[in-house]
Amino acid sequence: MIRKTLIASTLVLCGTVGFTSSAQAQESTDVNFTANVPASCTFSDVVDGTLGLLAGTTLTSAVADGGTAGTAKLTCNNVLATLEADAPAQQGTVDGYDHSTALTTVAVTGTGANAVVIGTPDTPTAVPLPGETDLIVDMTTTPATGFIPSGDYDFYVRLTVAP
User: Fold this and answer.
1) How crowded is the C-beta side of 18, counted as CA atoms within 13 Å?
2) How would you class 44 by CB atoms within 10 Å of its CB: exposed for 0-12, middle for 13-18, buried for 19 or more?
3) The domain that contains 157 carries what CATH number?
4) What domain range includes position 83?
5) Residue 23 within any structural domain of the chain
6) What pTM did the predictor assign?
7) CB proximity list for 18: less than 8 A, separation 6 or greater
8) Residue 5 lies in a domain
9) Tens digits of per-residue pLDDT, 77-104?
């Protein structure tokens, strides 16, 4: 009888050890993370320019003529955005100056992540790389005939970026 009890005790002990080790088995799982980052481009650090008078017939942002270029920083997080510059527009009027017939030009150049060059208004230009691009904005305006009349002039060049 002792022998049967000993055999039974051994079986119970082995079963308990086997059950206990399977209850302590390791388990793992993965924790996933997702994100949706939309394409975006933003302008910052915008500094207005000034216009100087060239030979009495042209207002220009050229430093040699007393003007200063406008500047802005463009930051994009995506590839192949497009940048566009509108032709200079006048806010308000000055007697004797007809902006609708004046010859106006705009030039935008970029340095940094992208070497962007815009010389033709309303023409989308590729901004091929993500990152920061420092933009320099220049403009000129020359009336169709005569000299620039005296007065206070106020122009703007609208920049538009599409991600």
Assistant:
1) 6
2) exposed
3) 2.60.40
4) 41-162
5) no
6) 0.79
7) none
8) no
9) 998 899 999 999 999 999 999 999 999 9
